[in-house]
Amino acid sequence: MIIDCHGHYTTEPKALMEFRKAQVAAANDPKARPKPSTLQISDDEFRESIEANQLRLQRERGTDLTIFSPRASGMGHHVGDSAMSMDWARVSNDCIHRVTQLYPNNFIGVCQLPQSTGVSPAESIAELERCVNELGFVGCNLNPDPSGGHWNAPPLTDKWWYPMFEKLCELDVPAMVHVSASCNPNFHATGAHYINADTTAFMQLIEKDLFKDFPTLKLLIPHGGGAVPYHWGRYRGLALKSGRPELSEMMANNIFFDTCVYHLPGIKLLTDLVPIDNILFASELLGAVPGIDPKTGHNFDDTKRYVDALTLSATDKDKIFEKNAVRAYPRLGPKLEKIKAAKKN
After folding, report:
1. Which domains does the chain have, with CATH numbers?
2. What contacts 289, CB < 8 A, 6 or more positions away?
3. Of 48, 129, 207, 284, which is the active-site residue?
């Protein structure tokens, strides 16, 4: 089975985006904000948004299952207050749940957290528990920079984050370390802010012993690990100079990268340097790099083509396409058996 671990709901029904537009317009006037109970979206609207987009591309590109979350750039944790963020997270996650209910063999949910600038991550735990325990989600997206590009939150290794990590370990779910939109004009959201965050998070993890405190914690760093594979020697050197372990030892069963790298040389570099056991297949559909590469005639984000073209063993490709996802998402395994049985029938 081919599991895409990084998909976003970027084709949301119009009503959801209208709700968000009204929310943002009333960011400074809580009484004027729309109530989540007013949002009404039909099953047909969800089907229309999915079938011509993510579901069509699954079929065309030969993937089977997408681990699906709300639009990352739309999380907007820097907008409004914590109450507004909570409402937005809940309605966004409920929409993901609706998709997983309509297409249970094609999509599994990962939640947006109701983070807010300066607010303890502990305040997001209730929504994480709801999504995992009630909606059947298998993970979450954790924003290391809720300020939207100003980086005023403590590093991920700071104890400020520990209540969230404790709950992730208790629930046995991973977090994808994924920022949202950038409100800092110095950082283009997908071309700079995302990659900056991936690279920054990895360096933070090099510097401290987070996984000694949380040996079962699993963190996914998307977009191929940001700049890390390209500068693998730099990070190895910095780690070893500081008396830290080898990068492969540090990653072990705790840190994973995905394959959201939109050219074959980049995927090859990723798999040449990063341990195969720590790489998960992903495409970020529908995401940051749409369009056709004029040099190849194929879509930039058709990342399965790149993995298929690698001279890896069948065993290693199976790890990237399926087995590593099961390791990274412990709650995925039992669901996967049901999905495989359903697809056979």
Report:
1. 3-344 (3.20.20.140)
2. 190, 262, 300, 301
3. 284
